[in-house]
Specification:
The chain is an alpha/beta fold and 152 residues long. It is built from 3 helices and 7 strands; from the N terminus they run βββαβαβββα. The chain has a 7-stranded mixed β-sheet.
Length: 152
């Protein structure tokens, strides 16, 4: 299900895996760094009721605009708003693995979230799906129980 779409950013929600997938369009390669901020904030201005236990962000189309400052801003201001209180995994897809540094564990909303950077989409999805919670068809997002606990 598409949660958000613009000329530059699309956010897809894979309901059965509680996975929120952000990916930049071809047009995004023509915007500046402020465009990244603008698009994420535009997305957040909508009321999103879906839980994101796993977050997948494909930075490849805007990689030339990504800096450590952009990643830090995302982790501080955006991630807490899109991750449910039980989020446990986040993956970034980029072309060059040395582009950014990232801790393997990020604390958000009193939860420890595993975080990794990948250069291969197939490996990224394999990692996200390892032990991923699956939604039972016919249940509401807020009806499910998580196997992953938060650590304070």
């Amino acid at each position: 299900m598409i949660l958000y779409t613009s000329k530059f950013l699309k956010v897809n929600y894979l309901e059965l895996q509680y996975l929120m997938h952000f990916y930049w369009t071809d047009f995004a390669s023509h915007m500046d760094e402020d465009g990244i901020y603008h698009e994420f904030l535009n997305f957040l201005s909508r009321r999103i009721y879906k839980r994101a236990n796993q977050i997948y962000i494909d930075w490849r189309k805007v990689e030339h605009l990504i800096s450590q400052e952009t990643i830090d801003w995302f982790l501080q201001y955006i991630l807490p708003k899109i991750a449910s209180h039980k989020a446990y995994r986040m993956a970034f897809l980029i072309k060059q693995s040395d582009l950014i540094s990232l801790q393997n564990t990020i604390k958000v909303n009193n939860c420890k979230i595993e975080a990794r950077i990948f250069t291969d989409a197939e490996q990224l999805m394999q990692w996200l799906m390892e032990g991923a919670e699956r939604k039972q068809p016919g249940t509401d997002d807020h009806d499910h129980d998580h196997n992953h606990s938060c650590h304070t």
